[in-house]
Amino acid sequence: MFTGQEFLSLRKALDEIPIIDTHEHYGEAWDGPETDLYALFRDSYVTWLAHDEELKDEPGCLLRWLAPARDNAYTVSLVRALRELYGIEQRELDQQMVGGLAEKVRAAYKDKAWAISVLRRAGIQHSIIDPLPVPGYLHEEASFHLALRSHMLVHGYDRAARDHGGDNSFQFAARFGHEISSFDDYLAYVDFWVRHHKEKGAVAIKSALAYERDIDVKSVADRDAERIFDSGTKDPAEQKKFGDFVLDLLAKKAAEYGLVFQIHTGLALQATSHPWRLMWLLDNNPDTVFDLFHAGYPWTQDVLAMASERPNLIVDTCWLPIISPTAAVRFYQEYAEMAFRADTLLWGGDNWHAEETYGAALTFKDCLAKAVSEKVEGGYWTRREGLRYAEGVMWRAAGRWFGIET
Ligand SMILES: [Zn+2]
Questions:
Q1: 32-70 residue pLDDT tens
Q2: How remote is the CA of residue 25 from the centroid of ligand 1, in Å?
Q3: Distances in Å between the alpha carbon of 368 and those of 302, 354, 361, 393?
Q4: How far, in Å, is the centroid of ligand 1 from the Cα of 269?
């Protein structure tokens, strides 16, 4: 019988369990004094929602800016985090409270240790970071592990081309002392790029190309890639071909150097970001571990089909709980039932600042506790079995696949 009692008790238990957060974007300012209340909103997903005016650093403006976005899970999760972290009991914020909150945030960020303390309060012990805006190592923090964003490499058909983050691999290569004039130089540089970061401790290669191109990858012959390299072609089909070649190469490099290949699927360029478009890449690189992001939301059922039979696929619910807590609860339940292998499901925040991650972690634990408690009360699991599954999602799967010890 479903009483809700099990939820309360399990939810409490989850606060005692450590988390390995598989995906964040903390940049240089993440723990610095330039982070204020307005930056926390501006650099959050709330920015992506409807707003009737531009956000200015002023309490009344923030409230008006939030109004059309108030029911969205991004907003609910972030506002809840701020309320908890900064001790605000009143549910509806007014101007005076926002002013007070802005002061509290400013005071908190005077202490460099504040941001990391927020992660620890959320139970997060380790984080895999794809720092924005510049790929590569940025933070000294020992509990941060690098995901190496490698989009720029797909644009080697034109030495002036940039990825959607504005990066150019020929310029990056020069920084590392690599002069690229031939296709072989380029291949050698790709190898260096991956090996160098692996040696510095990277745990993953990352692709968020779903924001700039079709995520589909097809087989491309070496000689075709060589022909297109540095040709300056403007033909989108040729450009894609070169990118396909590089993505397949990166998948092979990931296997060679023992890195996980993290790939964004789901919400992005929606006509070309369906997770099934990755089938060729996955099936032709059986030795590469692919971490499929965002559970492919909104195509979560289709991801379940993929996860039901693929030994080289792990699934990441990073971002999912704050996109849709309802979808996340269902996904945590259904995944357990049909995944090919236990301990292949992960979670990450996918945020720019610690407060947003804190909210995402609370929402994640709510969803996971709801999913598990319903299955315990329904008789599918004992409480002990359900907790074991929850621990798998919170840290054990990430620890195993990324080689991170808690
Ligand atoms: Zn991300």
A1: 999 999 999 999 999 999 999 999 999 999 999 999 999
A2: 6
A3: 20, 21, 10, 9
A4: 14
State the distance from the centre of ligand 1 to the C-alpha of 293, rounded, in angstroms: 9
Q: Distance, CA 111 to ligand 1 centroid (Å)? A: 26
Ligand 1 centre to CA of 353 (Å) is 12
Quickly name the fold that domain 114-402 has. Answer: TIM Barrel (3.20.20)
Cα angle, residue 252 at apex, residues 248 and 253 outer, rounded to 5°: 115
Q: Using one digit for the tens of pLDDT, what is the confidence trace for 266-297?
A: 989 899 999 999 999 999 999 999 999 999 99
Distance CA 359, CA 365 (A): 10
Q: Where in the chain is the domain with CATH 3.20.20.140?
A: 114-402
Question: Considering the entire predicted model, what is its pTM?
Answer: 0.96
Distance CA 49, CA 67 (A): 10
In the structure encoding, which two tokens stand for residue 11, read together?
A: 């939810």
Given this model, what pLDDT does residue 297 score? Answer: 96
